[in-house]
Amino acid sequence: MACSETQKLVAEYLGGEMTVAQRTACEYHFSVCEDCRQAVDGLAGTAGRLLHWEQVTIPDWDRTASTAEEVSAQKTRPEVVPLNTRSRQIPGGWQSWLPLAATVALAVFLGWNQDSGLSEQELTAYLDAFEQRQQAQTQRIMETAMQEFGDSTSDSMAQLVEWIQAQRTADMQQLEASFQQMLNHDYQALSSMQQLASWVSTQEP
Amino acid sequence: MERTELALIQRAIQGQPDAWQALVRTHETRVYNFGLRMTGSVDDAQDLLQEVFFSAYQNLSGFRQDAQFSTWLMRIAYNRAVDQARRRKVRDADPLPTSTETVDDRPGPAAETQSQQRNQQLQSWLAALPLEQRMVIELKFFQEMTFDDIASLESISPNTAKTRFYAGLARLKTLMGDCDGLF
Ligand SMILES: [Zn+2]
Known about the structure:
B: Arc Repressor Mutant, subunit A, Znf_put (chain A), Putative zinc-finger domain-containing protein (chain A)
C-alpha cells in the first residue's frame, strides 16, 4: 500500500472516535488519496454488516451456580482438573509447596497470557520434574529419620510415618485448594512473582 | 454508576443471593452475546457465561466502587474468553470452527428467522478471524470501547489495536465476499 497512513486513518475513521474537525480532515485526505479511498469504501460496508447482529436472549440458565464454589469450579473449568489431579500426585510438601504454588501460578500466568507461552505439556513436564525432586527429598528425610530414630521401637517409627503421611495430606489439600482458587482468580491482575506468592499464601483453603 | 447497582453489589458482597441474581440479570445478555460472537458456539458461550459470573462473584469484594461495574465485568469476560480460547487450543490443537455447522448446534426451529441466520453467518465469519483480530473487532464495534481503552485492556499499544482492527475488517471483507441477500 503506497499511503503509509491508510491503516491508522481508516481504523480511526471507522472506529468512530474522531471529532467533527478530524473527520473533515480525514475525508479530505480520502478524497485525494486513492489508497485510502478504496480501503475505506470497501471496509465501511464490512463494518456495516457487523451491525446486523441482533441481541440473543439467553436460554434459561442457573444464575445461582456462580455462587456455589465447588460445583461451579469443577463444572465451568474442566480443563484445570488435570492440573489438580497432578498436584494430588505430588508427594510430600514439607512446607515447600508455597514457592511451588507461586512458581506454577506464574507459569500458568505467563503461559496462558502470552501467545508464545508455556504449553500444557511443558507445565506437566515441570510438575513431573518437581515430583521427582520431592520424592528424592522425601527419601532423604526418611533416611535421616531412620538414622536418628534407629534405636527406637517400631512403634515410634510407625508414628513417624503416620505423621509424615498426615503432613503430606494436609499440604496436598492446601495446595489443591490454592491452585483451584488461583485458577478461578482473575490472575491477569497479578503481575509479579511476589504478588503471586503473597496472594497464594493469604488464600484460605 | 447507578446507586441501585452499587447497593446491589454491596448486598451481593454480604451474601444476599437475590442481589447477586439481579446483577446477573442486568448484565447476562451482554456477556452471553459477547460469548456467542467470540466463541462461535452456543455451548462455549454458555460455559463462558458461567465462568465470567463465577469469577465475578469470587472477586466481587475486590471491585473498586468508583469504577463501572460493566467495565469491570467486561474485563473479566475478556480474560475468561482469552483463557477459554487458549484452553481450547491446547485441547483441540485446532483453530476455531470455520464452518457454519459448528456455529449453532442446537436443534433449531424448522424455520429460522432471518435474524438468526444473519447472526449465525456473522458468527462463522468472526470465528474465522484470528483471536486477536476478533477481539479488537468485538471490543470496538460491540462493546463500543475506544482504541485507548482496548489497548489498555489488552496490554498493547493503541496503534497495535488499530492495526488489528484494520486487519480484522480486511479479513472479514474477504470472507464476506459477495454474500447473498441476507444482509
Ligand atoms: Zn491515504
